[in-house]
Each structure stands twice: as C-alpha cells, then as structure tokens.
Design a protein that fits this description.
- The chain is of the alpha+beta class.
- It folds into three domains: about 120 residues, Schlafen, AAA domain (Methyltransferase, Cobalt-precorrin-4 Transmethylase, Domain 2, 2-Layer Sandwich); about 180 residues, Heat Shock Protein 90 (2-Layer Sandwich); about 60 residues, Arc Repressor Mutant, subunit A, CATH 1.10.10.
- It contains 16 helices and 18 strands.
Length: about 475
C-alpha cells in the first residue's frame, strides 16, 4: 500500500469501513479479529489494519512466514467462511497487515452469534427482532451504499460542502479528496460515489435524490389553513441547519430567571428539536418517495418521516436499530449524533427539564411520527410570533434590487460553486423567479456566467 494512502486512512480514523488492531497473536486478539471480520462481512465490507495501537500509533505487526496461514485459520472460525484478502506492507520500517473483507449478502456468524458493523463498533445482535430486521436488510440492497450511476465527480462534487464536512469532523483538509471519501465509506475503490456521498457532497442533491426534502407548515387556530410554509432541499447537513433555523423563527421564546438574570429561551429546548430533525433525516426510508414533514400547531410540533422502526414497538427507545448505518456514521463524525443511540432519551430528558410533557411517538408500518407538546399557557402574554401578519419581527429583511445584485456577487466570490437558488431565496426572502431575473441581469452585464448543463451546472464570476 502506498504510504500517502495509508496516512490518509490513519488521519480519517476508524469508522464504518475501517478498523485498527494491535495484533492477532493472543486468543483474545484472535477473537476480536473474528468479530470485526464477521461484522464487516455482514455489513458493507471493510478493511482491518493490524499493527496500529491506541491513538493511531503505528507499532507494527509481528510478521512471519506463517502469518497469512494464521489469518486463514482465523477466518475459518466464522460460519460460513467469509471472502477476504491479506496484504502485508511496510510503513516507516514497520510491517503492517491489511485484511480486506468483501461485502456479501450471506449471513455470517461467529460462535453462533451475529455481528454487524455500526459506525466504528462491531455490534452484537442479541434479540430475535434485531436478527430478523438484519436478515430483512440482507435481502434488500442498501439505498445509502448503492452507487449513484448519474453522479459525475468532476461535474457534481461540491468542494465547499466537502471542506465544511472536513472542518466539522476534524479531518485534515490537505488530504486527497478521493482517498478521504473512500476511507469514510462513501466512494468505492473505482471512484464511484454512493447515494450517501451524494446526499452529503452533491452540488444539486435534488437532481439525484428528489425525496431528500423537509416540508415545514405553520398552521393557524383551525389547524386547516396554514399561515406559512417552507421547503428545504439540500445536502443533509444544510437540511438540518436550515430546518432548525426555521423552527427557531416560528416558535416562541420564554423569559426565565437564572442566577438573578433574565434569560430568553426557546419554548422548546433546541436540543430536543435538533435531535428530532437529525433522527428524521438519518433514519428515514430513502426508498420511499415521500418527504419529511414538520407541522407546527398552536399546542404541538409534529415531525413525520417515511419508514417504520423495524423492530417490535416494545423495543423502541431501548434497542438501537439504525436503518441508514453509513449516514449515522457520517453524522457521528461531525458530532451531530452519538454512537450510543441515545437520541430518544436525550429528547425526553431535555423536554422534562424544560417543564414540558414527554414527546409522543406513533410507529406505523409506513411512517414514524414524533409529537413535541408546546406549553400553551406561556404563549398568552406574548405577541403571536407564529402569525407573520401580526408580528413584524417575522417579516424578512427587505433588500433593494441593487443590494441583492451586490450580495449575489459577494456570495459567488466567497463560496464559488456553493451558491444555490435555495440559499439565495432563503437569504433574500424572495421567490425563485426574482432570483432568476437577478442572475439574468448580472449575466447580461457580463459579470457572471453559467457553467455546466442545465440541471447540475453552477453560476460563477466571470474571469
């Protein structure tokens, strides 16, 4: 293996498709190695690097002429025997072993136990329901791991979104892009982008995954007519952040006294709202053409996403059962979620601490709905922030045409290829046709140009 490629892998660290081991000599080490091989074979495949200690320290592996034969014996402890390759390479005068476990649709077990890869953990499946759900997943191909054949890396890859992800995850931005994408598991070794990578790093997510949307509706007293609505469609990180901002705008604030100081807080704790949005995006069924929907009523907020829980309802909130393991791993890398699967408990705990009722959940065969209850009494003394007609604070800032044109040029200079219609519409509070006219005018003035095809191209400053 090339030293630069290995350094990139070391920098990115363990995850859905990468595991580090010190050695395989002792009985305990061999057991751990078999568990990791079994978990990778039951998931999307992966690579195990032997000779790496704590904190990614390269200590080297004990290589003899029996090494490959010993690893062959290790894999024979798994039933059925998984397909893998073994390679030995040198790095800084130390020998390392890389075991490449192939993806398979068979069900592998070690000592009669099933293991599955979840993020950087080889998870033991213990309940009957967990194993049945796992077997159902094995019969279907994974949406997130499937290659998106329409994605063209040179044309569709958004460097700005990728750079933002690296910053959030603490991965060095000097590493080779394709190496990082392969090491975090969203691109195959032939350079093809998966649906998961498309959801995070595409310039135009809607072109590839039209169901990747969140629709928000603000309802009036009668719960029939809505006062306001907003549609968000972007990469998964932007989707979470934009939806959170919208909810902050439309929900009320309350005044509380802490340490003799008055503090204004959102009526629903932001921890609960953000966790609920992330859960909806991370665990939804992307095979379904339905979209995530958020309904804001006077007394509650409903978050509905397509897809069922997958296990018996009695295990809900107790047994972690992620539908999209790779998406969850990506969110964990940027600290959006924790690997312990404690999201539901965090939602409930934050609501109770805030003096609100616990959230309600409806689990159906086709959808999942979370309901967070609002405290109606706290709204009586406040201006109705949920009615855009009566609350001038909710009016978007008005921009003149000249201000819009100047700001568009500034955004293109700052973000290059990362400026979309959706971002401009959200910033200026105008409709798509207005933005189109503004861009057309700048083009006539020979200040900007459109590069690429109609669906996936981008606007750029003219050189």
């Amino acid at each position: 293996m090339d030293s630069k490629v290995f350094l990139d892998i070391l920098e990115v660290g363990e995850g859905q498709k990468i595991e580090f081991k010190e050695n395989y000599i002792s009985k305990e080490n061999k057991n751990e190695l078999r568990i990791a091989i079994c978990a990778f074979a039951n998931s999307e495949g992966g690579r195990i690097f032997v000779g790496i200690g704590d904190n990614k320290k390269v200590i080297g592996a004990n290589i003899t002429d029996k090494t490959e034969g010993e690893i062959e014996q290790v894999k024979k402890g798994i039933n059925p025997i998984p397909e893998l390759t073994v390679d030995i390479f040198s790095f800084q005068n130390k020998s390392l072993i890389v075991i490449d476990v192939k993806k398979s649709y068979l069900h592998y077990m070690y000592k009669g136990v099933t293991f599955e890869r979840r993020g950087d953990v080889s998870q033991k499946l213990e309940t009957k329901e967990e194993i049945e759900q796992f077997q159902r997943r094995k019969r279907l191909y994974s949406f997130e791991d499937n290659i998106n054949i329409l994605f063209n890396f040179e044309r569709d890859f958004d460097k700005g979104k990728f750079s933002h992800f690296l910053k959030l995850s603490g991965i060095s931005d000097v590493l080779d892009e394709r190496s990082v994408l392969q090491n975090i598991g969203v691109m195959d070794l032939q350079g093809n982008m998966s649906n998961c990578g498309t959801l995070f790093f595409s310039k135009n997510v809607y072109y590839f995954v039209k169901q990747c949307k969140i629709n928000c509706f603000l309802f009036g007293e009668d719960e029939i007519q809505f006062l306001d609505s907003k549609e968000f469609c972007d990469d998964l990180i932007s989707l979470v952040n934009s939806t959170e901002r919208y909810l902050k705008e439309k929900l009320n604030t309350i005044s509380i006294i802490k340490e003799f100081r008055r503090i204004d807080e959102l009526e629903i704790p932001i921890v609960a709202l953000r966790e609920a949005i992330i859960n909806a995006v991370a665990h939804r069924d992307y095979f379904s053409k339905s979209e995530v929907q958020i309904n804001i009523f006077k007394d509650r907020v409903e978050i509905v996403n397509p897809g069922n829980y997958g296990l018996d309802n009695k295990f809900f909130g107790k047994v972690r059962n992620p539908r999209n393991v790779l998406i969850c791993d990506m969110f964990k890398r940027i600290n959006f979620v924790e690997k312990g699967g404690t999201g539901i408990r965090r939602i409930q705990s934050s609501l109770v601490k805030h003096g609100l009722k616990k959230a309600d959940f409806v689990l159906d065969n086709n959808f999942f709905m979370l309901t967070i209850h609002r405290n109606v009494s706290t709204q009586k003394t406040q201006l109705n922030k949920n009615d855009p007609k009566n609350d001038p604070k909710n009016d978007p800032k008005k921009f003149s045409k000249k201000e819009r044109l100047d700001l568009i040029l500034k955004r293109l200079e700052e973000n290059k290829d990362n400026v979309s219609y959706y971002l401009l519409i959200e910033e200026f509070g105008v409709d798509r046709s207005t933005i189109k006219r503004d861009l057309s005018e700048l083009k006539k003035k020979n200040l900007i140009e459109f590069v690429g095809d109609k669906r996936t191209g981008v606007w750029r400053l003219k050189k």
